[in-house]
Write a structure and sequence with these properties.
Layout (H helix, E strand, L loop, with lengths): L2 H25 L2 H31 L4 H4 L13 H10 L17 H35 L2 H25 L7 H6 L5 H8 L2 H17 L4 H28 L1
Helix pairs in contact: 2-4, 2-5, 2-6, 5-6, 5-10, 6-10
């Protein structure tokens, strides 16, 4: 009957579409997507603690602007700058939404601003130290968990790397990065405010800088991050040695 050939044609076409879809699915490069997903959580952790450090130190020094703005929180949604997060995930360098600080609330405005600004990069270095120790301490246990353990291990590694990258990137003395605010403590008021006139162009310059360095044969930012990471690698080794001694 006519009904049966039609069913056969439909199944053949459907099977062909399924087969084609499976071929496309299997041919996709999932490693790129996996790397992005594994990077998002470390990036959110790094920028959240970075901005929280700014706000908390400013609060302790007498400025409650960040607290009133709801920025003394571990909620990453309060600190995300979409462009900065995308830069961190893709290029491993980026930024967060700056915590509001009113330097007029400090007893010593220059000193208070410099300390509050430095708190972000310093917090990132401390995070890297802690995470590297955990990376070494948990390396052996995580290897026994298969793929899940591998993913967790990669996330710890990326957290340490991104935290160092965020610290180094932010000490660049270009507004609105932290380095420009630390520099304020060493400049005259007139020189500083002249520098801050160009803050509106700072992000455009920084985005262009990241793209240029990413495509350059020599990336000084990447070299600096790798240098600091290598210098701190002994902390991971220390954690690893503790577990090895216990296991033996």
């Amino acid at each position: 009957m006519f009904f049966y050939p039609v069913i056969g044609i439909i199944l053949t076409i459907g099977g062909g579409r399924i087969s084609t879809f499976q071929s496309i699915w299997n041919g996709l490069n999932w490693s790129f997507l996996t790397n992005i997903l594994l990077t998002i959580i470390p990036a959110l952790l790094c920028i959240t603690l970075h901005e929280l450090a700014h706000g908390y130190v400013a609060y302790k020094l007498g400025d409650n602007t960040a607290k009133e703005a709801g920025r003394l929180t571990l909620n990453p949604l309060k600190h995300i700058d979409i462009m900065g997060l995308a830069m961190m995930v893709i290029f491993k360098f980026g930024w967060a939404k700056p915590v509001p600080i009113n330097m007029r609330n400090f007893k010593d405005p220059k000193r208070g601003m410099a300390i509050s600004a430095a708190a972000g990069p310093i917090s990132n270095l401390l995070i890297a130290v802690v995470v590297l120790f955990l990376y070494g301490l948990l390396y052996i246990p995580l290897t026994n968990l298969g793929n899940i353990g591998d993913y967790l291990s990669q996330m710890l590694y990326l957290t340490a790397y991104l935290s160092i990258a965020l610290a180094i990137f932010n000490i660049i003395p270009i507004p609105p990065l932290d380095g420009s605010k630390v520099l304020y403590a060493f400049l005259s008021d007139a020189a500083y405010w002249k520098l801050m006139r160009y803050e509106r162009y700072g992000m455009i310059f920084l985005i262009a800088l990241i793209f240029m360095l990413n495509n350059a044969s020599v990336n000084p930012l990447g070299t600096a991050v790798s240098f600091v990471f290598d210098k701190l690698a002994f902390i991971a080794q220390f954690g690893y040695d503790i577990v090895s001694k216990i296991a033996s």
